[in-house]
Design brief:
heterodimer; A: mainly alpha; 9 helices; 2 strands; B: alpha/beta; Sec1-like_sf (chain B); Sec1-like (chain B); SEC1 family transport protein SLY1 (chain B)
């Protein structure tokens, strides 16, 4: 139940009373170390970057599910993937750089604990982003590899010979429900002029793959794609993308390994709020005890020094007297 | 209309909304960017709110919501600039002065205050006066009141955060004002749950004075709450512990029951000290511990084989992961599996430790024999020889099945159970008398509890004027020998579900706060035990074969020892 409005109006009504007494000696706000201000700003920036990266991955996922690696250009996917990759490496290095700041001696213990927790949170938020990015890149890689294989087969062929596997590949992209179960790689010969007469039996045109008749291969692939089936340029682009993807995957694995070490260190042994708090209190009590002990030790030492000095003084005095 | 209510889910969602630092107005303006400007917050708690929060969130989960640190309000705190301070507190005057000091000393960047419902009418004006006297008044960005004043044991199990409720309700020297305050506190927890789940209650309250005044208090809380928008109409049964003293005396044999009996159980955790005086604290959360959620109802003898089976599964899976990692260094799926395997292993280690500790207790206290004996007693099929042997009245025990004498406290418990269930005319009453004689000769502290039960148990019908005397008599006539045992309160609920107009059910007082228009009815029933609930009842009410979904609440979760202790203190007060 939100009561903010009601409460604030109560506060202002009290303040507007003529004889209302305000705090006579307002305390000055504590001075904030500049390094902590920078840490705070950067941690917030990183948090925003994480949000953006998560959004981009969402977009990358949709794009991946919509685009076909055979017929569509991989350019937009490449752009977004490389942008996410640079974001992630930027985030990762930023986290490392602000982590280095947490060894600042100017900061109070609470600031240090807070900063450590912030870094822990940022790392934890990065982990799912990293793993979903990894999944996306893997998916893209497998698709590209498949596309490359198919292209290779198409390139090897001369004329309108189409292998069953290629036909299957095309179908699995367009009509997954029509993919045949056998995996023989025999070339299927069919009339390059494509019969218009539906009554003629034709292995590609008719019911060997499904019940309903479907489009001609030209229609299936799109005229522009079928004529120069897959251009050399696109093939080059694909292989570069594939190389980049492999590199990216390696980098992600590396990042994961680094993060894994970090997260393992941060794993809670016991996940209970009040137990941890009580524990902290006990620790605090213990440290206070130790401080007390140290203080009393210090006092005792001082006492002893005074005693020794006194003895020396008396001895000196006695010697002085004796010498006289 | 049927809906699966979950107290845990609703409470967690409420708190997540709190952590997002959004108030109702921000919901209307999603473009408000201020929220994302303050992603980090420090959570300030007091003893009570810490107890409430603990079963709902782990420190890791708090991190997920941007809570970097959580601190006690009464601890020495140094300033943490540029961070929002989120206060989740009980509405008390000391907390007002803590907040005032924090604001004056600029402890945090901004301040979001949240208090447990219900706040007293003068609380917010007092807080506002204190805040108004401080210099930076724009410091407070949000104030709210949350109906979360209860301890969450599970999705369908809650209790108030009070202790000794039975003692405080029954003590003869309590003045009516103090008792009324206690009932109000209990009512605020029940009202909080109803508010949180959006339930419009139809109360069926036990024919005792306390249950009826509890109902009145809950009704007045709900009526005074402006934000109560009920979505469903549910039957709410208020049972009084004094009408069934049998349930807390039974020796349990379920895994959950034994954990509550032998170890120290509190919401989402269990603690114990082992033989080497080492203290163990373990999480017991059904959402993160599949073994617990699957087996907490099981009989204890099933736990050993279940742990063994899980171990075998774990070993097989870990072997296969090992093999696949050796074959392929970059096998990501195998590496991912390792994480879940580590969790499984931790879980199994934990349950092995718990089960081992319980097994020790079973051996030393002969809980296996005691649970069988107590089950036979409530079923009306008392095996006198067995009772004599365990009570040490009969030394000539069968050497093939040696039964040693049980602990005195356990024997007092058994004697109390016999006193409550065996009619005076029964031939077993001679056994009860001899057991009573032998135990009274010893100096057993909990024997006073038995005296209390004996003094208040009459075998005649209770007179309408009687407050305590004769309260527990109703149980005796209800035992069907050899039949399946049902708890007293469970039987009443079953009669209600079956539309049986039993005399006990007819004695219940039905009331409901007015509402227009009435919300759609739900199949779920809320059961509340005033004076303390038990694990055995919770398991019985929420059993998988029960026809209605039940949300079980109680003023406190009793163990047999806490129950007997409260009765002992009551008896000692009298003398």
């Amino acid at each position: 139940m939100d009561r903010t409005r009601e409460f604030l109006s109560l506060v202002s009504s009290f303040q507007s009373q003529p004889n209302f007494v305000r705090d006579p000696a307002p305390q000055t706000p504590p001075t904030i170390p500049q390094s902590f201000v920078t840490f705070d700003q950067r941690s917030k920036q990183i948090n925003k970057m994480l949000q953006t990266a998560a959004q981009k991955i969402g977009y990358y996922k949709t794009l991946l599910s919509q685009k076909s690696s055979i017929t569509d250009s991989t350019q937009s996917l490449d752009t977004i993937s490389s942008s996410i990759k640079s974001d992630i490496s930027m985030i990762s290095s930023s986290i490392k750089s602000i982590d280095a700041q947490t060894k600042n001696k100017e900061w109070s213990p609470i600031m240090l604990n807070h900063a450590k927790a912030v870094i822990q949170i940022l790392n934890k938020r990065l982990t799912p982003i990293l793993s979903s990015f990894q999944e996306c890149v893997k998916k893209q890689t497998t698709e590209l590899q498949r596309a490359q294989e198919r292209t290779q087969e198409v390139m090897d062929m001369s004329g309108p010979k189409v292998t069953r596997r290629r036909a299957k590949g095309i179908l699995s992209d367009r009509r997954p429900d029509l993919v045949p179960q056998d995996s023989s790689d025999e070339p299927i010969q069919f009339n390059p002029t494509y019969p218009t007469n539906q009554n003629q039996p034709n292995v590609f045109m008719h019911n060997s793959f499904g019940d309903e008749p479907f489009q001609t291969p030209e229609e299936l692939l799109g005229a522009s794609d079928f004529q120069p089936l897959i251009t050399e340029r696109r093939e080059q682009q694909r292989s570069t993308t594939l190389q980049t993807a492999h590199r990216t995957l390696n980098e992600i694995s590396q990042m994961f390994q680094n993060m894994g070490r970090l997260l393992a260190q941060q794993r809670d042994n016991l996940q209970l709020i009040d137990y941890n708090l009580d524990h902290a209190n006990v620790n605090m009590d213990m440290s206070i005890d130790q401080l007390e002990k140290a203080r009393s030790k210090q006092k005792n030492r001082r006492k002893r020094i005074i005693q020794i000095l006194l003895v020396i003084f008396v001895v000196v005095l006695l010697i002085g007297l004796l010498v006289r | 209309m049927n809906r699966h209510f979950s107290i845990k889910r609703e409470a967690t969602d409420r708190l997540i909304k709190l952590f997002s630092l959004k108030n109702d107005e921000d919901d209307l303006m999603p473009e408000n960017d201020e929220v994302s400007e303050t992603p980090w917050k420090i959570l300030v708690l007091d003893t009570h709110t810490k107890q409430i929060l603990s079963p709902l969130f782990t420190p890791n989960q708090l991190h997920q919501h941007g809570v970097t640190l959580f601190v006690d309000i009464d601890s020495l705190r140094s300033p943490l600039p540029l961070t929002a301070g989120l206060y989740f507190l009980t509405p008390t005057n000391p907390n007002i002065s803590f907040i005032q000091t924090d604001i004056s000393s600029h402890l945090y960047d901004s301040c979001y205050l949240s208090f447990l419902y219900p706040t007293q009418s003068e609380f917010f004006p007092d807080l506002a006066r204190a805040v108004a006297s401080c210099t930076p008044t724009d410091y407070i960005k949000g104030v709210s009141e949350e109906p979360l004043d209860f301890l969450t044991y599970d999705h369908n199990f809650f209790s108030t955060r009070l202790t000794d409720t039975l003692f405080n309700l029954l003590r003869p020297d309590v003045d009516s004002g103090a008792k009324d305050n206690l009932l109000k506190q209990i009512a605020s927890s029940l009202a909080s749950v109803l508010l949180l789940l959006g339930i419009h209650p139809i109360f069926h309250s036990s024919p005792t004075e306390d249950s009826q005044s509890l109902t009145r208090h809950v009704t007045s809380f709900l009526q005074s709450s402006s934000s109560h928008r009920p979505k469903y109409q549910c039957d709410v049964f208020i049972f009084d512990r004094t009408t069934d003293f049998v349930a807390p005396l039974l020796h349990p044999w379920s895994y959950f029951g034994l954990i509550n009996e032998v170890l120290q159980f509190s919401p989402a955790r269990v603690c114990w000290t082992d033989k080497e005086s080492k203290t163990h604290v373990e999480n017991l959360n059904g959402d993160t511990d599949p073994f617990w959620s699957e087996h907490f109802r099981a009989s204890f003898e099933a736990i050993g084989p279940a742990v063994k089976k899980c171990w075998d599964d774990y070993t097989a899976e870990s072997e296969s992961v090992k093999r696949s990692v050796q074959q392929d260094q970059t096998n990501d799926t195998a590496i991912k599996k390792l994480d879940s395997l580590t969790d499984t292993k931790e879980n199994l280690d934990k349950h092995t430790l718990i089960a081992a500790e319980i097994t020790n207790a079973i051996k030393t206290r002969q809980l296996d024999v005691l649970s069988t004996v107590s089950e036979n007693i409530v079923r009306g099929t008392v095996n006198e020889d067995e009772v004599r042997q365990i009570a040490g009245l009969d030394e000539s025990s069968d050497p093939s099945h040696p039964i040693h004498r049980a602990d005195n406290a356990d024997l007092v418990r058994m004697l109390s159970l016999l006193r409550l269930t065996v009619p005076m005319s029964s031939p077993t009453s001679a056994l009860v008398s001899s057991l009573e004689q032998s135990l009274s000769a010893l100096d057993i502290p909990s024997f006073s509890a038995y005296n209390y039960i004996k003094r208040n148990t009459t075998h005649s019908a209770p007179s309408p004027e009687s407050t305590t005397s004769g309260r527990f008599s109703s149980f005796i006539s209800k035992i069907a020998p050899g039949g399946q045992f049902r708890h007293q309160h469970q039987r009443i609920l079953n009669d209600f579900v079956d539309n049986k107009q039993s005399a006990e059910l007819r004695a219940f007082h039905v009331s409901s706060p007015p509402v227009h228009p009435p919300p759609p009815p739900s199949d779920t029933v809320v059961v509340f035990e005033l004076g303390g609930g038990t694990v055995a009842e919770y398991l019985a009410f929420t059993a998988k074969d029960s026809r209605r979904k039940v949300i079980y609440g109680c003023s406190e979760l009793l163990t047999a020892s806490s129950f007997l202790d409260q009765l002992t203190r009551l008896e000692n007060l009298k003398s």
